[in-house]
Amino acid sequence: MRKIILATTIAAAMGMFVVGTILTAEEDVTQLTSENPQIDYQGFLKQVQEVAKVREKRRISEDEFLRMMDDPETVVLDARSKRMYDLLHVKGAVHISLPDMTAEDLAKLIPEKDTQVVIYCNNNFKNEPMAFAPKAPVASLNLNTYNTLYSYGYRNIYELKPLLDRHNTKIPFGGTSAEKAK
């Protein structure tokens, strides 16, 4: 029975005949996601296009990042795992792991949706393969973090743009790895 359901799902995903009907790609996605109202792939695709227009204007240089992180009203957010955050993070950054982001947890961490939030991820730092192991460019944590924050109504989001050498950047770090290096 599982094989039949899986084959039907795969056939549906490929736009093939399903119960004698050919589905368009849009109908196919709608049919596959309509069975769970808590998953909205069409909404996700629409939002990604919307976020792309905003995000590109909000990517900042190292100097701008440093200036923003000195502002006491700005939240520097690290969405990596707790283990990697504890190992090494931008000094002063607050932590919430991306998989743990909910409206409630974000509201505790960033109560005002117009708060300036600055994000960074593994793919912003090189030469630190343990704490900042590079991800595939299309799987960069910044992309998912930006979209997730936007999903929850945060609009004042900025993202560190360049790839910086962890050992030559002006950005200060905290965590157990930074303490050992002193």
Keywords:
182 residues; alpha/beta; five-stranded parallel beta sheet; two-stranded antiparallel ribbon; 41% helix; 15% strand
Structure in words:
The protein is 41% helix and 15% strand. The chain is an alpha/beta fold and 182 residues long. Strands 3-9-7-4-6 form a five-stranded parallel beta sheet. The protein has a two-stranded antiparallel ribbon with strand order 1-2. The model is unreliable at 1-21 (pLDDT under 50).
Short description:
It contains 8 helices and 11 strands.
Low-confidence spans: 1-21
Largest sheet: 5 strands, parallel
Helix percentage: 40-55%
Tell me the series of helices and strands, N- to C-terminal. HEEHHEHEHEEHEEHEEEH
Give the neighbour order of strands across the main sheet: 3-9-7-4-6
Strand segment tally: 11
Strand content: 15-25%
Count of DSSP-assigned helices? 8
Rg calculated over all Cα atoms: 20 Å
Q: Could you give the distance between the termini?
A: 60 Å
What value does the average pLDDT take?
86
State the oligomer: single chain
What structural category characterises the helix and strand content? alpha/beta
Shape: globular
